[in-house]
Amino acid sequence: MILGVGIDLCEISRIARSIENRAFVEKVFSEEERAYADAARNPSMHYASSFAAKEAFAKAGRWGLSAVGLRSVWVSRQNGVPQILLDERAKRLLPDGTIRIHLSLSHEGDMAVAVVILEVCDDPILCR
Fold it and tell me: In whole angstroms, how large is the CA radius of gyration of the chain?
């Protein structure tokens, strides 16, 4: 059963200006997100998609980003597949049971987009 869907667009050039301030980067992005983006040819594109993912997650749950927290949600790219990881603060927002978080990221031109689907899963074995 689908619990929620969230989508967010982020302007890459706006993030490019923001990441010039390292305090902003450290306040908003996890160490894993920073390492991934900073190693890329176009870091601002990856920062923008991570920021959009945080927003999309907050929208999918109807919590708002201030309730979720900027550093409580981050994008991990294990084996090239992006996924959302949560700290304990963000996990407490989710309902009881097994929740699967689907994430899709894309970028084109000056825009990055993220879509998050929160799915309540009845079978924990199938939902790994």
Answer: 14
Residues near 37 by beta carbon (within 8 Å), at least 6 away in sequence: 29, 43, 44, 46, 47, 50
Distance of CA 25 to the CA centre of its chain: 15
What the block records as the tokens of 110 is: 């000056």
Judged on CB neighbours under 10 Å (0-12, 13-18, 19+), 6 is buried
| Domains defined for the chain, CATH in brackets | 2-121 (3.90.470.20)
pLDDT digits 0-9 by tens, 77-118 = 988 899 999 999 999 998 887 789 999 999 999 999 999 999
Report the residue count for the chain.
128
| Three-point CA angle 112, 118, 123, nearest 5° | 140
